[in-house]
Structures are given as C-alpha cells and as structure tokens.
Design brief:
Blueprint (H helix, E strand, L loop, with lengths): L1 H4 L2 H18 L1 H25 L8 H26 L6 H40 L6 H39 L2 H8 L3 H40 L3 H11 L2 H27 L5 H33 L1
Helix pairs in contact: 2-3, 3-4, 5-6, 5-8, 6-8, 6-9, 6-10, 6-11, 8-10, 10-11
Length: about 300
C-alpha cells in the first residue's frame, strides 16, 4: 500500500528521525515529532483532494493531526500543573479565595437540585417497591443510590456547567486581552496564580459539596417517605446508616475529587489556550462545559467498575 502511494522512502526517513528524537528527547517530544513530521508528509499528498470536499477539516489526516497535537498539549499542561503545584511559593491566599468562590457560586443551586432529586427519586421508587411488598427497603435503596452515584453526579454536573464555563470564559478573556502575557512579563507566575489555585480549590471543594449534596438529597427523601407512612427521623437515619458502608463513602469522596480535578484542569486548559477574539472566549467556555461533562461520566464508569471489583 505504501509503495502504491509512493510514500515508502519518505516514511522510512521520517520514522528514523522520530526514533532518533525519541532516544534523545523523551516520549513526549517524540510524540509531537511524529505528529508534526507525518503531518508534513501527508498534507501535501491529500490537501488538494480534501479541499474539493468543501473544507480542509473534512480530511481525516488533518483531524487526526489536530487531535493528537491537542492531546499532547493537554498532557504537557497536566505535567506543568503537578510540577508547579508542589513547588513554593504557594498561592495560599488565592486558593482560599477560589475555594470560597466555588462554594459560594454552587451552594444554592446544589441545595435546590439535590433536594428535588431526593424527592423525585423517592417518589418514583416507592410504587415499584410497594408492588413487591418491599416498601420498607426504600430508605436503604435511596441512600445507596444517592451516596454511590446520584450525589456526586449531580454535584459534578452542576459544577461543570457553573464553574467550568466561568473558568473557561475568565481565563479565555484574560488570554484574549493579553493579561496573561503581561503577568508573565512582570514575573508574577501566571500559571501558578491562575491555574494551580483553581485546580487545587476545585479538587478540595468538590468532596465537601458532595457531602452537603448527599445530606440534602437524603433530607428530601425523608420528607417524601414521611409523607407516605409517617416514618420517624431516627428510624430513617438508622436504616440509612445500616445500608451505607465506609467503602461507599470513601469511593464517593475520591470520585468527587476526581470530578473536581477533571472539571478544573479541562476548563483552565480551554481558557488558557483559547483562540484570539471574542469568539475564542465563547468557544473556550463551551469546550470547558461539554468536555468536562463527558469526562465526568467516563470517570464515573471507571470508578464503578473498580468498586465492583473491590466488592
């Protein structure tokens, strides 16, 4: 196939160069080199053919190249975060400010949404259990569902929409107006001040918000259960505590911390590397929300498989 395309000699020379670069400059450098060299190799062969389809971006090679380069930039961004998160001076005051901002912006929305989720889930589950004569299992069912999945998912999705768009738009506007460049010139360590502080604050605050969200959802569930059969609060709490294990609690906290890290690192990356112009700010905010929600479900699925293995 390569001989038919007439690319055998060119691919061999480019591959040898990439292997040499890998041995001397590491895996990430070789990864970028492979992408860049094969981009130059295939672009001049397929650019003309792809342009006839109406847009260059319809070309699979161009799309794959852009995806690989973006992935390499994301890994570099995460590597820079871990490199600077543990190196003084630390932005403690800014981390505290971001923690307060995250909790303050999400508090009332999480309260309202979690309470309604507890009420609705209990209302929908009660007829099914009553048909089997197992209505007494309702507190156990709701508590396990809320602590294991419902509470972290509600909190993560709300924070992805509320905080992700805010971080992406804020850093994107700073990038467009060249404020980040000005901070770099003045020597104020913009990455640590803008990115590290937000990522650390979100990673710390999401578990606290999840604990609060679980409590509010269980309160809404109790309100609905007490309207069915006048269950006492002590009996309800006893059944809830008997159904929840320490593994469920720790897994929920770890999952929520991963949610916070994914939301903040994706949103900061989208804003920090936004395109120029006002359209770049909107694109950064949209990318932050959509990609964050996507990774929330990916992390939830991975954690579910891991917990099933432990149980």
């Amino acid at each position: 196939m390569l001989q038919i395309l007439g690319l055998s000699t060119e691919i061999r020379s480019y591959t040898n160069a990439c292997v040499y670069y890998f041995l001397h400059c590491g895996m990430l450098g070789a990864y970028k080199t492979v992408v860049n060299t094969y981009q130059g190799l295939f672009t001049h062969r397929y650019f003309l053919a792809c342009s006839y389809s109406g847009s260059v971006y319809n070309c699979p090679c161009m799309f794959l190249t852009k995806t690989l380069l973006t992935s390499a930039d994301i890994f570099t961004f995460i590597k820079d975060f871990f490199k600077r998160a543990f190196v003084p001076p630390f932005e403690g005051r800014e981390i505290v400010n971001q923690c307060f901002s995250i909790g303050n912006k999400s508090f009332f929305l999480i309260t309202f949404t979690s309470f309604l989720a507890g009420v609705v889930f209990t209302k929908q589950s009660q007829p099914s259990l009553a048909s089997f004569g197992a209505e007494s299992w309702l507190p156990s069912l709701v508590s396990q569902a809320v602590v294991r999945s419902l509470g972290p998912l509600i909190t993560g999705l709300i924070c992805a929409g509320k905080l992700g768009s805010n971080m992406g738009a804020e850093l994107g506007s700073m990038q467009v107006t060249e404020q980040i460049d000005a901070m770099e010139v003045s020597g104020t360590r913009p990455f640590s001040y803008l990115v590290v502080s937000r990522v650390v604050a979100a990673t710390l605050m999401l578990p606290l918000l999840v604990i609060y969200s679980d409590g509010v959802a269980l309160l809404g569930s109790y309100v609905m259960i007490s309207s069915f059969n006048d269950t006492g609060i002590l009996l309800y709490l006893n059944e809830v505590s008997a159904a929840i294990t320490y593994l469920d609690i720790f897994a929920s906290l770890i999952k929520s911390a991963l949610f916070g890290f994914a939301i903040s690192i994706i949103s900061c990356f989208a804003g920090y590397h936004s395109d120029k112009g006002t359209a770049g700010v909107g694109k950064a905010a949209n990318t932050a929300v959509v990609v964050s929600m996507f990774f929330i479900f990916i992390i939830d699925l991975i954690m579910l498989q891991f917990l099933n293995f432990l149980r």
